[in-house]
Amino acid sequence: MTAKKPKRIEDVRKKDDLLVVTGAGGFIAGALVRYFHDKGFRRIRAVDKKPLPDWYQVTPDVESLCLDVSDRDNCARACEGAAEVYNLAADMGGMGFIERYRVECLRSVLINTHMTEAACRAGADRYFFSSSACAYNIDLQEDTECRALKESDAYPANAERGYGWEKLFSEIVCQEYWAERGLKTAIARFHNVYGPHGTWDGGREKAPAALSRKVIEAKDNGTMAIEIWGEGTRTRSFMFIDDCLEGIDMIMHCDELVGTPINLGSSELVSVNGLLDVIEKIAGTKVKRSYDPTAPKGVGGRNSDNTMIKAVLGWEPSTPLHTGMSKTFPWIEEQYYLRKAGKRVVE
Ligand code: NAD
User: Fold this and answer.
1) pLDDT number for residue 8
2) Is 337 a catalytic residue?
3) Which pLDDT value is given to residue 299?
4) Measured distance CA(67)–CA(23) in Å, rounded
5) What is the pLDDT of residues 250-300, one digit of tens each?
6) What stretches of 43-84 show up as alpha helix (H) in DSSP?
7) In the CATH scheme, what is the homologous superfamily, with its name and number, of domain 9-193+240-264?
8) How many angstroms separate the most distant Cα atoms in the chain?
9) Ligand 1 mean position to 48 CA, how many Å?
10) How far is the CA of 108 from the centre of ligand 1 (A)?
């Protein structure tokens, strides 16, 4: 769709304002740091608890700090002098991870609690929080033919155990810091994000990367067969990373959205089998499919209702799945063969 000029965007940043991004050793925040760098911002502080060699992307000329932001003092250090804070740090992964490690997911509440306070004390103008579609009431997502989730569907609350409840509570923290303390908070509920430089192996990867890797492996080892978690009929929408970055920037600077959770996701619904069809087309191959109905699989169906984002920003994530996967699959394939050749890659 053609993007209209978003309403009430109040981006008064100067290129030398300090932008702080947490979770920057990970997929989305690592890409966000690069995005701001490429837009000409000269003072960016990237923060992650992982040691620097394990970061997915390290952008040159950026202050990169290894700090655990579940610790209050580290949050103060991270936010010092910040004009804007983008908090994307969280212990998370695909269904395999969030169903198995609910306590780890819940403990991310410490990150957002300390980060909002630190951003507020540091006098930051704006604070961004990456929430999730997992905050939505799961009763509305049993059916694979689900209706798309609109923002009001988070209440009455019955979020995904662990991860989803943490997101929902942290949203409230952001809302109250705006209502009571005047910190301009932006809250985006991401629906599955994919793209190059994301997790593609090791247990935290999500369906687009996991299926791509399995197809690459099946081709490489000649079995031409893969196992799919679940029945292959569950449905989701997947947002390409470039759309996610643009959306974060717009949501953060839209006054109409301060303190207001909003969907940031694609509305192109696809089943797991349909996603695999797309991957097979890109890989130029077909694989034999078997199914493991006992594996973690999450809700029946989930899609993003983009009525609100279209109305407020005149924009929505619109990269077709095939286009985004055409950029993602070759990247994963390259990583796979680099690793096989004994080169160090970040998974
Ligand atoms: P990711 O796992 O690639 O990145 C998260 C990063 O946070 C990791 O590098 C991790 O080391 C870091 N981190 C965790 N705990 C930390 C701590 N205590 N201190 C400092 N750093 C810490 O995940 P991602 O896919 O880039 O997700 C980014 C954000 O978006 C997360 O908040 C996630 O919940 C949210 N989100 C992502 C998706 C998605 O599809 N990727 C969907 C919904 C919401």
Assistant:
1) 63
2) no
3) 86
4) 10
5) 999 999 999 999 999 999 999 999 999 999 999 999 999 999 988 887 889
6) 72-79
7) NAD(P)-binding Rossmann-like Domain (3.40.50.720)
8) 61
9) 9
10) 10
Pairing of strands 225-229, 288-292: parallel
pLDDT in tens, 306-320: 999 999 999 999 999
Residues 6+ apart with CB under 8 A from 159: 134, 135, 136, 137, 138, 165, 167, 168
Determine if ligand 1 sits within 6 Å of the CB of residue 114. no
Tell the residue nearest (CA) to atom 9 of ligand 1: 26
Domain-by-domain residue ranges, the chain?
9-193+240-264
Q: Is 91 in the pocket of ligand 1 (CB under 6 A)?
A: yes
As a whole number of angstroms, the distance between CA 175 and CA 179 comes to 6
Tell me, using a 6 A CB cutoff, whether residue 50 lines ligand 1. Answer: yes
Low-confidence ranges of the chain (pLDDT < 50): 1-2
Phi, psi at residue 148, to the nearest 5°? -65, 145
User: Which numbered atom of ligand 1 lies nearest the CA of 190?
Assistant: 43
Q: Residue 288 is inside which H or E element, if any?
A: strand 288-292
- Token output for 339: 């690793």
Please tell me whether the overall predicted TM-score, pTM, comes out greater than 0.85 for this model. Answer: yes
Task: State how far Cα 81 lies from the chain centre.
Answer: 26
Give the atom of ligand 1 at the shortest distance from the alpha carbon of 198.
3
| pLDDT score of 2 | 47
Q: Given 163, 177, 194, 336, which residue is catalytic? A: 163
